[in-house]
């Protein structure tokens, strides 16, 4: 059965395609212009479309007999007023309704519901890439100091509060102070902003967690070498991510970059971490 791949930016969609083909599956990619580069998919059967032509893409997927979809990769959420939807997408937007004006998770849940009603099965990237999620524990050679553990505790509280109202998945905390929280700008921009806010003393931490109640088939927190570079440039001591809920874009390269930069990379289960580090 051919796997449909709705591809955003970055390496993860390409990794999904490679893993699916290695397992003997054909792949057809829908490449969203402005999110991903169609040239990266020239080795695959693919369709490059603007986001507003998603209705056309659905008809092509259906005509090819594709029923299973993986939707992954970096995405830039546009204004709905700028999409210029085709007739098919306009019909789907009517079904999505008010969720179109919610946060990312609320919108994505509605998109999944509508696609399922259209006869598609939505698979998570981790169903194809079995080892892409971080396991619990320290992932590199550097261990967090006591101050960093306290900052992680503070970061958990902040990120879970943000996630509960579907705002973001990350925050930067230094010495108990929240230097920045992630919203629509994404992690790289958050880290760049926090570089100018660093206090003297031990560096802070980036905490990235799955939103409470989030559909784990889509938009999981993602960390890669670029995240490590941004954290190092911001003067952070390390990064804490959610075990079993965070995608490592390139595991070996990410861990090697963290070690080279002297940053810790710690995968945690938030509730267990809070219990284990309670005063």
UniProtKB/TrEMBL annotation:
Domain of life of the native organism: Bacteria
Protein name: UDP-2,3-diacylglucosamine pyrophosphatase
Domain annotation LpxI C-terminal: ranges: 136-265
InterPro entries noted in UniProt: LpxI (IPR053174), LpxI_C (IPR010415), LpxI_C_sf (IPR043167), LpxI_N (IPR041255)
Any Pfam family the entry gives: LpxI_C
Domain annotation LpxI N-terminal: ranges: 3-131
């Amino acid at each position: 059965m051919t796997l449909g791949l709705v591809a955003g930016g970055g390496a993860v969609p390409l990794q999904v395609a490679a893993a699916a083909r290695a397992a003997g599956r054909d792949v057809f990619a829908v490449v969203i212009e402005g999110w991903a580069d169609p040239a990266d998919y020239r080795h695959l059967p693919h369709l490059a479309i603007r986001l507003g032509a998603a209705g056309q893409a659905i008809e092509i997927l259906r005509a090819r007999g594709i029923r299973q979809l993986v939707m992954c990769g970096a995405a830039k959420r546009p204004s709905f007023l700028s999409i210029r939807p085709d007739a098919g997408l306009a019909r789907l937007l009517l079904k999505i309704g008010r969720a179109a004006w919610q946060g990312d998770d609320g919108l994505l849940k509605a998109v999944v519901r509508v696609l399922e009603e259209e006869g598609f099965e939505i698979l998570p990237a981790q169903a194809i890439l079995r080892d892409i999620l971080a396991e619990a524990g320290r992932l590199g050679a550097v261990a967090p100091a006591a101050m960093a553990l306290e900052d992680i505790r503070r970061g958990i509280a902040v990120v879970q509060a943000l996630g509960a109202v579907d705002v973001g998945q990350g925050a930067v905390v230094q010495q108990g102070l929240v230097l920045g929280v992630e919203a629509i700008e994404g992690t790289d921009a958050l880290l760049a902003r926090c570089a100018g806010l660093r206090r003297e003393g031990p560096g802070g931490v980036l905490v990235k967690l799955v939103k409470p109640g989030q559909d784990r088939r889509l938009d999981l927190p993602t960390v890669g070498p670029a995240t490590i570079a941004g954290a190092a440039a911001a003067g952070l001591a390390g990064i804490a991510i959610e075990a079993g809920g965070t995608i490592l874009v390139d595991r070996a390269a990410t861990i090697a970059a963290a070690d080279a930069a002297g940053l810790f990379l710690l995968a945690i289960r938030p509730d267990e971490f809070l219990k284990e580090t309670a005063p």
